[in-house]
Amino acid sequence: MDMVKSVNVAELHRMRAAGEKIACLTCYDASFALIEDRAGVDFVLVGDSLGMVIHGRSTTTAVTVDDIVYHCRAIKDSLKRAYLVADLPFLSYATRERALDASQRLMQEGGAKMVKLEGGREQADIVEYLSVRGVPVCAHLGLQPQLIHKLGAFKVQGRDEAAASAMARDARLLEEAGADCLLLECVPADLGRRITEAATVPVIGIGAGAGVDGQMLVLQDILNISPMVTVGRSPRFVQNFMAQASDIETAVAAYVQAVKSGAYPAVEHCF
Asked: Which pTM was predicted?
């Protein structure tokens, strides 16, 4: 029986170099993890989005390290191929020591292979501190949901040239600090392409246009069952893959195929 080759950082870099799009989805339980793994999802994120789509809260800020560890443990054994990434929750990386402690828990107790944190140049020291200690890091730029109480609303970031240039500089600084991957959320498609072309690490987009190396969506959004969808506030970049699917596994496989072929995101999903 052939052994399934697991995705790792080197494989993500190979995919970028080969021009193969990286298909990413959130996941929070074993049943969906099995479906995503079979469907060919490359990169599975236990995101603090669980605070909204699983816990029913209006923001992600109440999610704890315990919550993320719990959901990582729930899915890790169901993933034979996909790469498991975990969010560092709000304020869990406010200092280098807290970031290292939280990362240790997510990786040792939860089984995560990489951690993701939000922020720009102000997080470069944290990224470097984790990276040199063997913690793979995905740096999250653009819309940062953990800052919702400062931002006031979930909205597109980097629309003007000054903000776009600052984000591009932050991306470079985070990569230089040791980030193994970048995630861009809710930025104009031109900026997503600009940052991707300048980067040497994989760049994943969620509402960042088609010019990035891979796409991320929240699982409940593509299945048309998230709280945002049910109240008619679905983000522009979301596509309902259940609309033409006979079952959930078909919908997830259709998402993966759409990402791989470049059919998703289409123009209507971009800013």
From this structure: 0.95
